[in-house]
Design brief:
334 residues; alpha+beta; 5-stranded mixed sheet; 10 helices; 32% helix
Length: 334
């Protein structure tokens, strides 16, 4: 059963939320400020997901509720919804697409909702308003995890309960920026697989990291993408990973007269799923992943061997959709 809610709040605050799941079809109450405790100051920063979840968990602990954790898939969903909201195209139909493609595979009885709130000067102001806006949902005993996205003071939060996989322990205040990813592969729609990988899910995850670093999203470059596939096939045939041949990345790409200012490529033999690849890239090559001079990317994997190629163009390119849901949403250039 689906329902939508539009809650009126102060003129300076925008709020939109939709929900999906087997819950009573009633609006969430707007709690009066007088009934809410004032929260301790967080910081003057905006978009610090770890601080936000820490404050939420402290308030949950005060109510004898278990802590929630940051979930990478939910944060990716928040990114997609938040950017859609910024474009003025967010509606319940789009949330259904996000839910069905990203969130529903996380468990057979998943319930999820989201809320967009803005504009705020800092995380402290946001958390205070969030408690007032979705008090019952935020302090539900069954709530498992959240995902958060912030842009220019507008915050999107995605909440979920009924998740199949959870971390073995949950800290009230996370001491790392790494968000939880399910340990196994979540089946990807066959139509989303390109070069042996769920390309929309990969782009959503890697672009989320770039968005957090205030860097433009990657656009897929067809020459780099095709070469990454050739590299993955070569490694599969050799039985080991390599970044220097016998097929050379730079010679192959420049040999096609591709007008590329700079290239950087990495490879490995540890591909298990999209999240494992993104974790490797961020833990080992984050300086390249987040470097704004690299605008385009190509990626592939075959039999566990993976290749990622970053490129810098002489011209500017911009992704229309940093978190595509299907291959038809992916931005390509050549």
């Amino acid at each position: 059963m689906k329902f939508s809610i539009l809650t009126a709040v102060a003129a300076a605050v925008m709020t939109v939320s939709f929900a999906f799941g087997a819950v009573p079809a009633r609006p969430e109450p707007l709690t009066s400020p007088e009934s809410m405790p004032m929260l301790p100051a967080l910081s003057s920063t905006r978009g610090n997901a770890q601080q936000i979840v820490c404050q939420i968990n402290r308030e949950r602990s005060n109510r004898y509720l278990s802590p929630v954790f940051l979930h990478r898939t939910l944060s990716d969903a928040a990114l997609s919804l938040g950017q859609r909201y910024a474009d003025g195209n967010l509606n319940s139909a789009y949330f259904d697409r996000v839910f069905n493609s990203r969130i529903a595979p996380l468990g057979s009885n998943v319930y999820s909702s989201y809320k967009v709130l803005g504009t705020f000067a800092n995380d402290d102001d946001y958390v205070v308003r969030l408690e007032q806006s979705i008090y019952d949902t935020l302090f539900a005993r069954t709530l498992d995890a959240i995902g958060i996205y912030e842009n220019s003071g507008t915050y999107t939060i995605v909440l979920a309960s009924g998740l199949r996989d959870r971390p073995s322990s949950v800290d009230v205040c996370p001491n790392t920026t790494t968000q939880y990813s399910p340990p196994g592969d979540t089946p990807s729609p066959p139509s989303n697989i390109e070069n042996g990988i769920d390309l929309p899910a990969f782009l959503c995850a890697i672009n989320h990291e770039r968005t957090n670093a205030r860097t433009d999203a990657f656009v897929v470059h067809t020459a780099l993408h095709n070469e990454a596939w050739e590299q993955a096939k070569q490694m599969s045939q050799l039985g080991h990973y390599t970044v220097d041949g016998p097929r050379k990345v730079d010679e192959s790409i420049y040999g096609q007269h591709v007008n590329m200012k700079e290239l950087y490529w990495v490879a490995g033999d540890s591909f298990h799923n999209v999240n494992s690849l993104v974790n490797v890239l961020m833990s080992t090559y984050s300086s390249k992943v987040l470097d704004p001079k690299y605008q385009v990317i190509g990626v592939a994997q075959k039999d566990g061997f993976w290749s990622v190629i970053f490129g810098s163009l002489y011209r500017s390119v911009r992704a229309r959709n940093s978190c595509p849901l299907t291959l038809s949403d992916v931005d390509y250039t050549s």
